[in-house]
Amino acid sequence: MSAPRLLLAPLLLASLLLAWSLPAPRAFAGELDLPDDLATHPDGRMPIQDLYASYRSLLEQGWQLDVIVQSQPPGREQALPIIALRTPQAGEAVWILSGIHGEETAGPNAIAASIEVIAELGRQRPVVLLPLNNPQGYAHNWRYLNTATWSPDIDGQSVGDSAHLLPHPDQPDEARAPAASSSEAAAITAYILEQAERYPPAWSIDLHEDDLISEGYVYSQGKKGAADPLAALAVETLRQNGIALRMAGETRFGEPIEDGIIGPVTDSSIDELMSAPTIIVDGEARPGPGAHTVLVFETPAKDIELQRRVAAHAALLQALAKELAATPVQ
Length: 330
What we know:
By secondary structure, this protein is an alpha/beta fold. The protein has eleven helices and twelve strands.
């Protein structure tokens, strides 16, 4: 490992502190019709208005902004937009996702802090960015649309639920669920399938956290599974930036870990959808997105301050963007 890499996280942390101290360009966020009195859970995460302002700055680079759906789960008084941004050039693309679970804040904040890194990647190849898939969860610190925390006794409605499109393991000509678990999940997955026609996903990156673990790991859902060199790069980068990883053993869900990486799993997630060679739409089998590389990063949030977690996620985005800009499509 080179010395400059070891300095990456402190430098990113310094830039994050500077970014959070500057006034945000609120006019950008206002154009998305955010409620004026919208409050964000007060634990140090960026105000949601500032996140949208940072994401929307990609429009200055010629990107297109799409409002996928207005999210207003039962019990919420205000609707919030779930957005995506994409480069003007289409083609085999890098997809970057974050904020699936509302209490996992490092990813959306790291994307905001790394917006120029993402813009530069977009100058090299097509990119589709879904930076905050669960804005209601982010604002209120709720993991799911219908419940605040994970529980084995409650069926949490994730905005990334994809069971309605994924083949049943025992009946592959049928979907695992008859319908999407929520209107948000229906809209996000439909958007992915729609845009995959013009921006077929070659690589998919999904930023997650877990406040129930003290050591993280990397899921690799793509064609190379645990042998994907980008998964190994992610492990190296996270460790270089002070994130403890479980290198062997099992996840808290019983999935085997080797060298910090878990191979493909069946979990009905948006990441399984991104990697799926076949999906079920309206009862008919059709080709799925079939991304070559699908990486999901589960970094520990337990007992680690947010700024350190954001800096590590930003370092990860920077390392992967540099590698992807130079990697030929396979």
